[in-house]
Structure formats: structure tokens, C-alpha cells
């Protein structure tokens, strides 16, 4: 009997890992929020080089600042948007892009370094090593997509390509979802040593797919500045549908690169997402996860109101930034509810 008991002794610490992952999730939400502000302030192209290691040190001397400013003045965005900008103005936009990149470095460090330590100390439960490695790979992909996004705006464009921006944002939010889901699995494992990972149920998958479409169009909204098409709601410049764009190009192309049609889809698909997530929240409550139910309701309602307010304010930076912040929180709340209805123990 003593020998059998020893077989269950483990150095794994699922609750410790779960708490670590929740901290990483908060950092990812902060990174996404700062990225939104960076886009809103037209700051994303202020750093024209990718220096993953040496870029951690910002310009410190006047000569270094002048060199960075000279690099920026060579790209099309400077002439089109910021022509005549002073060095002080450049420092202001440089701040947001630098902060965004530093936040990304912090997220990677906060994930990778503890992961190595946990692996060495054998703190990772069986079956979770591959999942944590996949999350680390996603973080690396996120950094690469971020640079490809920036590079898309340095030559022939005056802003980053909307599809690259969408890929960059959606990868960050998918990574956030993976971190939260894994943390919740580890919490369950800490409570019930034989608990198996939650499965993604059909309702969870449907709600996730509907939310993905909404997030994709939200990213296109940012990339195309489609929020500036109108400051009216529920009408768009006195009309329900921007019919004037139909026939100007193939409809498939219009759906991803016409600001008016993208805006229309984003504002009305939001109600499809609203219905799908409400149903998910109700199922989470029925499964005994009332806190997930309340959190998803709160995030969903707040996000809808912020979206309307952002449009009617003419894309006020504070409101738009909050809209992106709550959008990331909504992803986490959706994962919480979907995880709740898919959890099982043996």
C-alpha cells in the first residue's frame, strides 16, 4: 500500500502554474490595449526597425533621437500625415510604439522564463508541457506578425496593411484564449487530481466562431479607420446600408477593404455575437458557473455600449481604447464560460 501511495507523489504544482498564467493573461490584455492606443494615435510606424534585443534601449541622446526621427521622415506616412512634425511631436508617437514593443517583450519574458524554471523544477503536470510550448510558439508568431505588419506600412503605404493588423491582433487574442483555458484546466486539476482537461463543446465552438468574425471586423475597422465613416447610430449617414459602394468592386473585396461596408458588418454582426454569447452565458449558468455567467454578461453589455459611444464620439481615443480593452476582456470571459460547460472530471 505504501508503494502504491508513492506512485501518486508528484512535484507538479497546477495551482501555482494557473496563477502564473492568469498574470500572463492580464499582461496580454494590457499589451492589446496599448496596441490599440498605438494605432489610434498613428504611432505604429514611428519605429522603422525591428531590433528584438537592442531595441529595449530607447534613444538617449539628442543625436540618437535625430537619427530615429530621420528614419521616420523617410517613410510615406510622414509626408502624408505628420509632415512638419517637430522632434517633440515625434517623441510623443514614438512613446506609444516603444511602450507597445516593451509590453510585448515583458509578456514573452513573463511567460518564457518561468516556463523554463517550472520545467527544470518539474512543476508542470503531465500532458501540459506541449500546450505551454504551443503558447510560447504563438507568442513568437505574434512578434513576427507585428513586424510584418509594421513593414507593410514602410514602403508604398501610409499605414499598416489592415489584414496584417488583423492577423496580429487575432493571434494575440487567440493566445489570450489559450492561456486562460489552460489556466482554468490547471485550477480544476489542483482541486481534483484526476480531473481531465475541459473539452470544447459545440455551443462553445459556435460562440467562439461568431466572436472571431466580430473581432476580425473590429481589427479591419481599426486598420481602415472605418469608425470615421459616420458618427451616427443606428443609421450610417442617414441610411441603414451603404448601398453606394455595391457594384464598385467585387463584393468579396468590398467585405474586407471598403470602410463603409466593413463598418456596417461590424456594427450589425455585433448583435449576432450578442445573441450567441448570451446563449453561452445561460448555458454556463445552467452548468453551475454563475460567476462566468455574470462576467460574460457584464463584458458583453459594456462592449456594446462602448462600441456605440465610440462611433457617436467620432472615435474618441479614450472610448476607442476602452472598447479594445473590454474586447480583450470579453474574449477571456467567453473562454471562461465555454470552459465551464465543457469541464468534466473522472
Quick structural overview:
The chain is an all-alpha fold and 346 residues long. It has 12 helices and no strands.
Quickly list its features.
12 helices, 346 residues, disordered N terminus, flat, mainly alpha
Which whole number gives the mean pLDDT? 93
Helicity range: over 70%
Strand content: under 5%
First-residue to last-residue Cα separation: 22 Å
Tally of strands:
0
Q: Summarize the main sheet.
A: none
Given the C-alpha coordinates, what overall shape results? Answer: flat
Oligomeric status of the shown chains? single chain
Order of helices and strands: HHHHHHHHHHHH
SS-derived structural category:
mainly alpha
Low-confidence stretches: 1-8
Radius of gyration: 22 Å
What is the number of helical segments per DSSP (H or I, 4+ residues)?
12
Walk me through the structure:
With 346 residues, the protein is an all-alpha fold. 70% of the residues lie in helices and 0% in strands. It has twelve helices and no strands. Helix 2 packs antiparallel against helix 7, helix 6 packs antiparallel against helix 7 and helix 9 crosses helix 10. It is flat, with a radius of gyration of 22 Å.
